[in-house]
Amino acid sequence: xxxxxxxxxxxxxxxxxxxxxVAAQKTHKINNLIDSLLxxxxxxxxxxxxxxxxxxxxxxxxARFNVSGSxxxxxxxxxxxxxxMELDADSKAxxxxxxxxxxxxxxxxxxxxxxxxxxxxxEFGFKSYGRRFGFDFxxxxxxNFKGWYEEDGNRTNFTIPEGTFRVQTLNMNAYYVFNYxxxxxxxxxxxxxxxxxxxxxxxxxxxxxxxxxEIIGSEKKQEYKMTNFGxxxxxxxxxxxxxxxxxxxxxxxxxxxxxxxxxxxxxxxHPIHYVFPEFIITARGAVVKQIGRNMFAGLxxxxxxxxxxxxDELAFSNIKWQGHLYFGYRL
Length: 331
Known about the structure:
Elements (H helix, E strand, L loop, with lengths): L2 H41 L8 E2 L5 E20 L2 E9 L2 E10 L2 E7 L1 H4 L6 E8 L3 E10 L2 E7 L2 E7 L4 E13 L8 H4 L4 E2 L3 E17 L6 E18 L5 E15 L2 E4 L2 E4 L7 E13 L3 E16 L3 E17 L1
Antiparallel strand pairs: 1-11, 2-3, 2-4, 2-19, 3-8, 4-5, 6-7, 7-10, 8-9, 10-12, 12-13, 13-14, 13-15, 14-17, 15-16, 17-18, 18-19
């Protein structure tokens, strides 16, 4: 090794020895600053601690089993003859694990049927449940359908071949809680609070839905489109029957105030008429049990239904449901 090469190695070693501790110290300071800011945000809340409290830990680990499904129904009349069709997309079952740090969560889901090639649809969602404000949305791109068709009382069951009929759906919901100092919506769903006493609250709500269904590969264009937006109000209640238990139920109906929906066949587009009043109704329920000091388990469900149109001409109904079975540990 030459003298110049040796000098270069010595300089590199000196640089690493002097810079790595400084970089580590700066990283440590940044981490402490972030932790301090998040802690202030997490603990500085305007709540009545006789009714709700924050968990005394920073980290929460949660394992979930999730299942969801959707249904589409159409009602129309050919003269005086009623025609009904009901379709169900393949239900989705996933396992997920989540980690939450001071109220900020990250989740990873695994769909065994998708990995095995048995579930072809695409679905994802995002949720944010706060004391005062919250929202969630789900998107589904479904092509696996089965159902039944009934004309003048005669029913026929069928399965639509994959890739023939495609439905894309986006659902969005938002809420505002009035009695947020005593009633905790996230205590039932995101578990960033613990409900100690029974309390309820009136809630404002807004809902939006967009859906497009089309027959793929048809020589003639056949599709329907729906866009709905609603505003409304509802009520939620957290019932604490005993220490460590929480039962939640809520209903948030929203009146559709804007709609743009139509059915197209070939070059003819037929509007789906609005019949006042029409609603998007979202209901939720949950059971939570605190186990010991830092563990919890529970079940939550969501059911949303939208009906639009005139059944004497053409009407569509949409149903979306979800269920979650979970176990969590705080540390």
